[in-house]
Each structure stands twice: as structure tokens, then as C-alpha cells.
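Just scan my protein:

. . .
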Amino acid sequence: MRVVYRGLAVVAAVVAIAVTLAVALPSEPDEVVAGPVAAPPAPPPSSGPAPSPSSSPSFSGSFSPTPSPTSSLAPGYTAMEALYADPRVPRLTRAVKRMSLASPGKRVIKDGRTGLAVPRLPRPWKAYGPAPFTTKQVLPKQRGTGLRGVFVTCPLPILEQKSARNTALLAARWTLNHHPKGSRIKWLASQPVERGWMLVYRVTYGKRTSRAAVVVMDGGMSKPGLAFVSVPDSQRKQWRDIARVASGVRVLG
């Protein structure tokens, strides 16, 4: 019996220690809340299924370009604070110059959802099924890679800011969801355009790069419109079309 009592005492002591630890150690969610809150590196673009981090500018897979007002921010962060905390996106300084804009071409695609008219790019670009965007033009697929040039428009997929410049910055950050994993931005040009803002930038991922641009413009709809173009270095001959996009987006009228 003495052995039995001794065994029960040991069991009781172990249970007591376990209970003490359970009380002393906070659960994982409490630890996360109590620690420093970091801004998320890449906010989900919508309330629907988030695209894979490794998705390419071919925009394969399902995606809804509708902003999610709350899910993209860490607690206590504004959209701009999250942007400034993102190491993939450098500060946009005055050292970033303007670019010369060409005259808009006559061939356009009209997007009634955004209230914008955008350039119809020449061959080898071709119009493609736009869903889930409102217009889409693509370059031919390349053997051995899923990367190819894409030009799309849609209602603004992120929350609009007070200034068109800040809205464009957030839109450029959003486009990293559609570049290869590990992509980082380097600004090439920044300037106001009619009723909006335009940014041109280089996206670097490993040893490869893409040229890209976003144009945010108020087309008179409930949300501003977004035009986004990206062309990988394997199709660098079409980098000249980045300027065509930046110069050619305008309000329908």
C-alpha cells in the first residue's frame, strides 16, 4: 500500500505542475496579440480566394478584383503604414523622375465598368477573355515559362486613399500578388495624369525582371479604375508598350 500511495503522490504532483504551466503560459493567440504587430507583406487582394504567391503575370487561376476593407491590414495599421513597412516596396522620393508621355493612339478598348478607354495594343498583343477583370490583353505564351505580358483593367481592387498618388502606390504593391514569389519594386517614373496618377516600375525576382506600370484614374464610376501592365524580360521587345499604356489611358467621353 505504501508503494501505491507513493505512486499516487507522484501522479498528483505531475498533474499540479501541468495545471500550473497551463495557467502561466498564455495561449498562442494571446502571445501574438501581446507582441509587436507587423504589417503584412502582401495584403490579400479580395474577399475571395487569394492568389498563390508564386502566381505569374499570366493571371491564371480564380481571382475577384474586389477590395477587402479589413482583412488586408494588421491590427492598428493604416493602409499606408502597411505599405511603408513592406520591404518589397521602396519609398517614392522626388528623385524618381517623370517620363515623356506620347500622344494616345486612336485604337482603344472601352471599359464601361471603370469608365476608362485604354489602348488596344498592336500585335503580338491580343484581346483575351477578361474574367475576372473587365478587359485583358496578353502576349503569346512562351515555352518553358508561365510568364508573359499582360495588360488588364478593373475597378480599383484596393481601398482608395485621399490622394491619387497614394492610391497608385497601394495599387502597385497589390500587383506583386501577380508576380513571382520574392518580387521587389524599383520605381522608374511617377507623375500625375488626368484625374489620377501613373507609376512605372521594375519588378525584380531572382535574376529575372519585369517592367510594369499602373494607372489609377477616376472614370466617374463608384470606384476609380485601374490599368495594370506587366511584361517580363523574356519579352523585352514589348517593353515599349509600357509607355503606350501609361500615355494612352483616358476617361471615356
About this structure: The CA atoms of residues 185 and 203 lie 5 Å apart. Strands lie at 108-111, 116-119, 126-127, 135-138, 150-155, 184-193, 196-205, 208-217, 225-232, 250-251.
